[in-house]
Amino acid sequence: MKIFPETVNLYKTKRMKHLKIGLLLFTVLPIVIFGLSSCKPQNSIGINYNSNSPLLSYGVDKLIQLLSEKGFSIKPAKSGHSKNNVYILVENSAEGLRNNKIATDHFADIEREGYKIIRDQQDVYVIGIHEKGVLYGIMDLMDQLAVNPDFAQLTAKQVNPAMEFRAIKFNLPWSPYRPGPATALHLETCRDINFWESFLDMMVKNRFNALTLWNTHPFPYLIRANNYPKATGLDDQQLVEWRSFWKSLFKMAKNRGIETYLVNWNIVVSPEFAAAYGVKEYSDTSQLVKTYTRESVTQLIDEYDDLTGLGVTLADWMGNWGEFKMSSSQREQWIEDTFVQGIKDAKRKVKFIHRAVLAGDPGEMRRVIDGANLPDKTIVEIKFNWSHGHSTPNLSLTHANDHGTVMQDFWDPIPENYFIAWMIRNEDFFVLRWGEPEFIRQHINTNLQNYVDGYLVGSEGYIPAKDYSYMPNHPHKTWKYAFEKQWLFYHLWGRLMFNPEETDQVLSQEISNRYPGVDAAKLLNAYKLASKVPLYIASFYKGTWDFTLYSEGFLAPWPNGFDDQKSPFISIEELIRHETLDPRYLSIAEYCRTNGHQISDQRITPVELAETIRGNSNYALALIGALRSTDNEPALISELDDLETWCQIGSYFADKIMAGISLTNFLENGDQSDKARSITYLERCLGHWKNIVDLTKDRYQPMPYVSMGHHLNPGANNRWPEFTSFHWSNFLKDVEADIDYVKAIE
């Protein structure tokens, strides 16, 4: 039985419309020219490229570094009889024309960010119609050479990207949307340009092409508004330093083929602006705030040439709750009068992201986008399954309104001047490593319709900068930054967004590079099985906004269903009475009402789910055991411990489902044997949770969880004042409380 149901491969259906000269997008094609013959690895390699191109120079520098590590020397590439050359060619460039004998026949079916690697006897050609595509071709070449540095064994191929927009959502710790200790601890790291250099290197290696930077009000950290100089609290020297930071960041990104966007929430001004000009910091619809916002948009664009675009949020402080109200039309009109007009007034054109979150009226959004008349398609971001995108690959919720209704008017009729980009939020695992390529492939194949041309991945509460969870100076900790620890998450999402048909064999090559001698296929398989656990939890236990579910901790600090008000932990009673996210799943209560009878084959029962999770976890544990060795590198030991922790969480979840079924039956029929079975399952749950604690207590320290800072937001309250840090050990008492609860029922 497949827990994630079969779905139509819309990726292939969509891409059929883009066939060029009989070649399917994305197909990996072996290209053999003039009868390629094998030869021994050469020690001297020539490289020919346009050194005036920052993108190509970046890629070639990385290539030369790798080749030098593999023992090669680099020489100038020469045409004619010289062999062992790498020609890096962009269509219509001087280099491309000089080598048109090879290139002319192969440019026609390459898309903007696609590439080909061609073998011609002992020479290699990396070609594309745009520098970005050629840069990805260089990355592919490096991937192959890292595994086998024999040029004669290189695989010739063609790859065109599946989607145009492949982005990371990165929340900034200044003017943050989620204030609190889990955010503030990143301030120093996120101001360090060396961090961003490493992060951007990771992005280009994994084929991400857009970095979206999010905070409530970015302008005071970038400009001194001409007509509102007191809007920023920075003095002149501080502002000079901030300008240098931003310009360096945007330039580094541009030189790697990565677009940069600043995304805000509305309506917000800085506390300095509010105090100096007599307005409210939040939800102020006055003409003064509108004028300030519009002028700031224009000035920002004019002062930062390398910034790609801006994004807007019509939520939180645009009359979405409380006494202050704004209609959808009023919110869109405010955006049109401020951001859209500010973009029009600027000296250059930029790209635009319009978030659908709480927009409410697709027709009003279409009106604003039509009126903007921008040269590039607007990117309309829609949250896929609200804040819990790592759940089911089937669309069950968005966040276009307070009810999560899937509003098809956003894409029906199919838009001409914008495309949909699915936001795959991760509010479910901040600590344990994750990597499930089958889920990502199925997600893309299911949801890449012809009106979709992008994905974003990222978190609201988790900033992948400072690694604050791992014990300082622990011998396992060989990484510096949090994103480096979560390397497989970014590797799989980035590479599969670019090419969802990339094989596990290719994806696992990065494992071989990191851990030579380890069975890479076996480790990836263990990852796949263990990483299904949070997907099952979030598919079965419906979450909406951020704090309604934290799968990794089995927490629902702000549940959107039945709430026993005992703790943030999901109790046995809450699990029983909660609805599922994926309608294919039967909840415990619904299943017990049927007595297991007359259930459609299309539905997934909680018993089937528990059996699947248990089977996957046991199989993964066997693989993990086979991978463990006294020769394991420290970081690999840590990865295996994380995977084993997921397996224990999965076993806990499976047994808790079964305990919930037995308890529900007991409450219905009074059979003491059902009560006894429930207690037995919950005692097994206690054993699993103790294993979780044992696997994590010496590696992970108690850490701030983002919901702890939620009460700092205007209008919020501190729901769990005793919840001051997260570690699995903190909730052992709640696991025990489930047993006491069932025992006490008469």
Give your account of this protein's structure:
The structure is a single chain. This protein has 746 residues and is of the alpha/beta class. It has helices spanning 10-15, 54-69, 94-98, 100-103, 131-147, 181-184, 187-190, 193-205, 236-254, 271-277, 287-303, 328-345, 362-372, 437-447, 482-485, 487-498, 504-507, 509-514, 520-540, 572-577, 588-594, 606-627, 634-669, 672-696, 732-744, and strands at 32-33, 44-48, 73-76, 85-90, 115-120, 123-128, 157-159, 165-171, 210-214, 259-263, 309-312, 351-355, 378-383, 418-425, 452-458. The strands form two sheets. An eight-stranded parallel beta barrel has the order 8-9-10-11-12-13-14-15. Strands 1, 2, 3, 4, 5, 6 and 7 form a seven-stranded mixed β-sheet that branches. Strand 5 (115-120) and strand 6 form a beta hairpin. It is globular, with a radius of gyration of 27 Å. The protein starts with 9 loop residues before the first helix and ends with a helix.
Quick overview:
The protein has helices spanning 10-15, 54-69, 94-98, 100-103, 131-147, 181-184, 187-190, 193-205, 236-254, 271-277, 287-303, 328-345, 362-372, 437-447, 482-485, 487-498, 504-507, 509-514, 520-540, 572-577, 588-594, 606-627, 634-669, 672-696, 732-744, and strands at 32-33, 44-48, 73-76, 85-90, 115-120, 123-128, 157-159, 165-171, 210-214, 259-263, 309-312, 351-355, 378-383, 418-425, 452-458. With 746 residues, the chain is of the alpha/beta class. It is globular.
